[in-house]
């Protein structure tokens, strides 16, 4: 038909396709993966991340590093999503998942260069991922998840992370105590465990409180700073003079009218204080404002009141004490009150905070993380949260497996042993997946100071003869040994999620052969 060319895309749109698109996407994914690779393991290094505003974050937590990086490439963002998914699902293993995804892309690129079709790579990776899950199930340890085992799980998670002046074992014991307190017949409710950070003391001052901590303190100086056997009200209304919803003016033409208006206002405020006292509450947490005159009257009655607390804090108090949130004082009665052994205001560093301990429904606990600086306490908070998540994952989601790269060696070995039964070019992708998994123990060996090739050979030989072999950090270097004997354990759920999320991200990127970006 002769004629004018047909423009489908905007003339300013950019399009990359074929090998160029695949290479660009894979390179971006690999670059992000490499950025966290040196943080893996007990001898992993930290990263310093500086924002445009000058804010500094120092950490070796993979999810934190990737979330703080200003990443624009869409394929690279998929690796960030891998880490975020891992964090959301099991709370740890973000670096493992990211490094594995990057290595799967590396092996996938080699296969593409050898003219293996992307669909074949995807099918092979999917088959290998299923074999990996089989290997994980086979290596799950037949052990009781008692406190000693859970402490080893928590300690393994925190080893190599910033824990200040305190050993990971002591923090692990605090973590396990917290999980045990929050455990019920229905499992562990993660929401019942809070980590409260406070600067001004060494990390060794980190401790567990059986209850919740509130940043707000009493609204009046004359209120008690400690209440034993407390009856607690949680109120969702303002204890102040009600304001009209309409725009109105009132004409006061005499002193008597003014006094009457003031008396009515005073009576209203007095009524608020009396209703709180008559309910039997000696502690009240209010989500709205409390007028000064109401606070003064309640202080005279010996009632502790904190106002302007957040809705989430109110929820924590309710769950810890059994109180009912009431939207009006008319609904405040004895049945609406919660109970706690004590409510105490204590100084933490430069700030006063309120401790609610021994609540009537006290499955809620708080770990107070202390540190000398903001950077220390922030990293300690991340380490504690990861440890809490892995202990819960071990209890609720399938037990524990050997750490220190032993599970990855078992996965690679199982995949290779089954690869011969897979026909066609898909076998190449399955074998490539096994080679990719080797990046994890190899990286552990590198970060520990071992020769990566020699360590990998020794690991395979030890696994073949003993069934379990990992890279153990010892002194200034490392050794190949049984990680179970060293108490290095990981939740099986972390390994399962890392395999799944890394495989999904890598296969998605490998399948892309056309990138169209608008102006």
Automatic annotation (TrEMBL):
<dbReference type="InterPro" id="IPR002194">
    <property type="entry name" value="Chaperonin_TCP-1_CS"/>
</dbReference>
<dbReference type="GO" id="GO:0005524">
    <property type="term" value="F:ATP binding"/>
</dbReference>
<dbReference type="InterPro" id="IPR027409">
    <property type="entry name" value="GroEL-like_apical_dom_sf"/>
</dbReference>
<dbReference type="GO" id="GO:0140662">
    <property type="term" value="F:ATP-dependent protein folding chaperone"/>
</dbReference>
<comment type="similarity">
    <text>Belongs to the TCP-1 chaperonin family.</text>
</comment>
<dbReference type="InterPro" id="IPR053374">
    <property type="entry name" value="TCP-1_chaperonin"/>
</dbReference>
<dbReference type="GO" id="GO:0016887">
    <property type="term" value="F:ATP hydrolysis activity"/>
</dbReference>
<dbReference type="InterPro" id="IPR027410">
    <property type="entry name" value="TCP-1-like_intermed_sf"/>
</dbReference>
<protein>
    <submittedName>
        <fullName>Thermosome subunit</fullName>
    </submittedName>
</protein>
<dbReference type="InterPro" id="IPR017998">
    <property type="entry name" value="Chaperone_TCP-1"/>
</dbReference>
<dbReference type="GO" id="GO:0051082">
    <property type="term" value="F:unfolded protein binding"/>
</dbReference>
<keyword id="KW-0067">ATP-binding</keyword>
<dbReference type="InterPro" id="IPR002423">
    <property type="entry name" value="Cpn60/GroEL/TCP-1"/>
</dbReference>
<keyword id="KW-0547">Nucleotide-binding</keyword>
<dbReference type="Pfam" id="PF00118">
    <property type="entry name" value="Cpn60_TCP1"/>
</dbReference>
<dbReference type="InterPro" id="IPR054827">
    <property type="entry name" value="thermosome_alpha"/>
</dbReference>
<keyword id="KW-0143">Chaperone</keyword>
<dbReference type="InterPro" id="IPR027413">
    <property type="entry name" value="GROEL-like_equatorial_sf"/>
</dbReference>
<feature type="region of interest" description="Disordered">
    <location>
        <begin position="9"/>
        <end position="32"/>
    </location>
</feature>
